[in-house]
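Journal club prep, notes for RB
We'll compare a predicted complex against what the paper describes. Inputs for the zinc ion case:
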Amino acid sequence: MKKSLEKLIELQEIDTRLYEIEELKGDLPEKVKTLSAQIENLKTENEASITRIDEITKEVRVSAQVIEDGSVKLAKYKEQLYLVTSNKEYDALLKEIDQVKSEITEAESSKMKLEIEKTSLEESVKENELKIESVGTVLEKSKHDLQIALAETETEEAELREKREKFIVQIDANLLSEYDKFKKVRGGYGIISISRGACGSCYYSLPPQMVIEVKRRDKLIKCPSCGIHLFYDDTE
Ligand SMILES: [Zn+2]
């Protein structure tokens, strides 16, 4: 049993140091993640806008063609008006002219709508590009700051993580899951040292006999109040 206790204490030492390293990084990893996501979103939005602008350009060309063809037809029909010999032909031609005119009006109105849409998309692309640039500057700064924060502890952190991986397989699975459970909810502590005869986590005053047993460090003892494993830190 002494072995299990010593292992938990050693695991806690590793985790406490890892916790300190995380604290050094502060909110920088989260910031880098958020800013990168922001930039990605803006880029995706711009890609969609640019695709739509290309579509619009083609659609505008189609409308312009309809207008051009219609104008040619109109001119031709108007000339023909002078050449018709019967009322029936004349009426038929007028009907054709009305038809072409309405086609042109429709094409002009859709061309105008498309151009308005295009202008607004182009503006939003430009706006997003400016945002990408300014967010990018903050992102680069945060990345740089994070790198500096990491530089000092990077090797140590990698070593600790590797050590932890190898270490935890030697610990009883139930014990480890209990440890992890407490670590999550007790500010990073899966096992806690007693302090002035009380549980270091919930401050419950332990019976004197229990304090003596914990100080012996020869078996696993849980706090009767909160259930966390206790140990005695003789360096305190
Ligand atoms: Zn407790």
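Talking point for the session: The two ends are 23 Å apart (CA to CA).
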